[in-house]
Automatic annotation (TrEMBL):
The lineage of its organism: Eukaryota, Viridiplantae, Streptophyta, Embryophyta, Tracheophyta. Residues 147-258 form the Disease resistance protein At4g27190-like leucine-rich repeats domain. PANTHER family: NB-ARC DOMAIN-CONTAINING PROTEIN-RELATED (PTHR33463), OS04G0431700 PROTEIN (PTHR33463:SF194). Pfam families: LRR_RPS2. InterPro entries: At4g27190-like_LRR (IPR057135), LRR_dom_sf (IPR032675), Plant_NBS-LRR (IPR050905). It comes from Panicum miliaceum. This is Disease resistance protein At4g27190-like leucine-rich repeats domain-containing protein. It comes from the Eukaryota.
Amino acid sequence: MIGSSDEQHHDVPGLYDDVLSKVGGDSSIPMRAFPLPPTLQSDHHIEIGDGSHNVQSEVEASSDINLGGLLALHTESLHVHDALARTIIPAKVVVVLRWCRVERCPNLKAVFPSGAVEYNTLETVWASDLLKARCICSKGGRDGPYWLRQWRASGHSFQRLQHLHLRSCPSLQYALPVWFSSLPNLETLHIIHCGALRHVFEQGEEKEHRSSVVEFPKLATIHLYDLPALQQICEAAEMPAPALETIRIRGCWSLRRLPALKGRQPGMRRPAVEVEEVWDALEIDPTEVIKAAYSLSVHVCFSLIPDRFLLMACYAIRCMGQAGADPIRPSSPKQSPPGFFAPG
């Protein structure tokens, strides 16, 4: 367990300890670290754990005088762990849920299944070790009830979401669908070890409800690690995030877009950015030349790994705030002997 000034983190053993301790960035919190789950329980708290029986039938029952009704109408904080149920949240309107913690549920396909509606109250989602989950919230499909499709299209879900923490969900393809043009309160995005994840936020299935721009006005921290299939954070043409303070990206070899810094106010503190060598693969934003908004300095080091050497390049990137400036590209470093740093 690792502590920081703001929060504590779980520490999962990894391969790059010596590298991370030598290159730029906040090495006090390794890339594999993961924030501790929320622990503040409300007076209306439910915990479902190992040994719980009939969870599936209770949640899926149509009556409100059961576990499903209690979850939908009265639960403010929820912790589900080591449960074998395929469904843990009913396909109903969930009206007061503020934080949701789900872990080690091997049969779960989605935390919020098709038909479930988050009533604009959820602030924190913390999910870990969901082996079969393909999403956190299902899109619901085009054939869902008319009222459900209209509700989602009106943009009343996840508008209070502040923190999204996901870890070790190997089947996850996307986290949340977006049916609207903004996630106005999201502050923290922390995702590690989700090998199939292609987008964190994915557009809904109905074309008339898709947006070419999804705004993240309060997003301050992005931490992405070991997401080899990730192409975009948000499946949209543009992702303005003017409040960004920290971006740390490692092991995301398919990434094609960084958030746009459009709308950043003059005089704001420059964000601390650490991203590996995917720079040349990034696409140009249609409204802002993203590459030209950053200045790069490169640090290259070698880390001894059994039977071979790993060359690892880490970029310390700082925002210039000038969309018209030419990006400074790193030159190819000359190889150094094992155990020595190449000059940056």
